[in-house]
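Incident review: delayed structure delivery

Summary: a single-chain prediction request sat in the queue longer than the usual turnaround. Root cause was a stuck worker, restarted by the on-call engineer. No data loss occurred. The affected request and its eventual output are reproduced below so the record is complete for anyone auditing the incident later.

Affected input:
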Amino acid sequence: MKALLRPGVPRREVWAWAMFDFANSGYTTVVITAVFSAYFVSVVADKAPWATFAWTLALSVSYALVMLTAPLIGAYADAHASKKKLLWLTTLGCVGATALLYFAAPGALVLAIFALVVSNYFFGTGENLIAAFLPELAHPRALGRVSGWGWALGYVGGLVSLGASLAYISWAQTAGQGAADFVPVAMLITASIFALASLPTLLMLRERAQPQPQRTARSAWQQVNHTLSHLRQLPDLKKFLICTVFYQAGIQAVITLAAIYASEVFHFTTQKTILLVLLVNITAAIGAFAFGHVQDRIGHVRAIAFTLIGWIVMVLLAWAAPDERMFWVAANLAGLCMGASQSAGRAMVGLLAPPAQQAEFFGLWGLAVKLASIIGPLTYGVTSWMTQGNHRQALLITGSYFVAGLWTLRSVQAARGHRAARRFVRVGD
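Output delivered after worker restart:
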């Protein structure tokens, strides 16, 4: 393992870095996907026709704020070598706002939306900061493997938070409590696990970067503008980023609205929804692990095409499902496709990005994913509102993003894009 790490980096510090994925995965799994989303629509907003739209709009606002501030925060962190301090701030912000959701009682719509926007903003910003530590820990040839350790540990963390919430909810339901009683407590459980599990990261991870006073917010935006204006030198990467926006819009809609769909269409209880997400997390981990080997064998473009076909089949199954049995099949197919497509997309960016600017282009890929996180869920939310709560139709329309992604992908050539990446010239060079 030492051969994979940079000199002076102990194994325990890499473990501490990976533990942040373990810590923060509970937030997305419990709050965004499995528990609070359905509770927001059915209890806080009392199943109003605009409830799903309000949920997706709140998330879209938080993602837009992350997109706008990411280059500025990144430039500040580089200029002051303050990634660690900012990580403390974003962690406390996300934990605190998640705990604030405890007070999201029936009818407390403004409080719920405020806490959701704040918590998701700090979550997204913290994700960017923790990723920036990776090049300081791992050799360039081992970035994928070390990153994968955190990814795998993240699935485990999501399962732990979800399992703890399920245990409490099962007890509460046995005691005769309703969702308005046990969901707020689940938010406290999630916030507590996030806080405790992040302590190894916050206490053991070192800030190795040196201050760079020349790195300013202006220079960060100049580099982003240069990269965007010169994407014509990288036509295959440009097409793949457009493809990413399309298919990630579909994925993000599934992630943020799965529990709502299960609750509103098939009348899943909170307990059954949690069991569903637990199983989907397991199939996602299997998909990410197994499909990486398949991707290396059959090629990046073909591998991503297979996953997008799988997503299209999943949408059609969930849309047409006459009962929950077919929906369970569709959900587990979504899990396999989710793990596979997320892993395959990241590897594709690594192949098409200029070697000297991997971090910058992964940042650009992150912006594409955040844009998709706005477009996909918002499309679902608007459609469900306009159709008076027709979630099947909303899913079918949102699923068209997978078709658009597959259509865009057909003109991407990985080998040609890799050659173009090696010829790309950085601003100032």
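Verification: The chain has two domains: 9-222, 230-423.
Action items: add queue-age alerting; document worker restart procedure.
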